[in-house]
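Same chain as my last thread, 202 residues:
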Amino acid sequence: MIDELMQRLRDGEWVYGIHPEASERLLEIADKCHELNALRPSQMEEREQLLRGLFGAMGCGVTVHSPFRCDFGSNIYIGDNVTVNFGMTVLDEAEVRIGNRVFIGPNVSIFTVIHALDPAQRVAGVMRAEPVTIADDVWVCGDVKILPGVTIGSCAVIGAGSVVAHDVPPMVLAAGNPCRVIRPITPGDIVDADSIFGESVK
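reply #2:
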């Protein structure tokens, strides 16, 4: 029952989401998140092992700072060389796909679940979900909220405190509530190499 329920949620169908098996799985994942958040930052191997068991897939070079919280975990897919700052929340009733080399600032929330607007149906657990996609090389600044069904295009930057309710095209700076495109990112945004202290370690 739970596997069919989860599949129907991933397919965007309306379901009765309050179910004993779903509640049991949510509690199991909450315990895993608690276990992750109790580990010291220096316990990198233990943290990576726990995350690989939690997520649907995770690439190499991924850092997830605590605290971190998700609903199911198995619907989260993360690429290579991703940095997730502290305080991230992911309600992953549908798939959440995060590309390569993505920076996610502190206190970012990603939501996929949509509850019924009618209060009686909402209390009864009627819900559906829509996926979220964050493409390669995106920077999501702190305190951003990403709503169900959103795709953020490659190389985009989402300004701090934004509420992203609609798709964001590639290679733009977008910000606000609701989030909107401010301007394209251009070669003029490249920092003059002669003004940078030190040397790159990459």
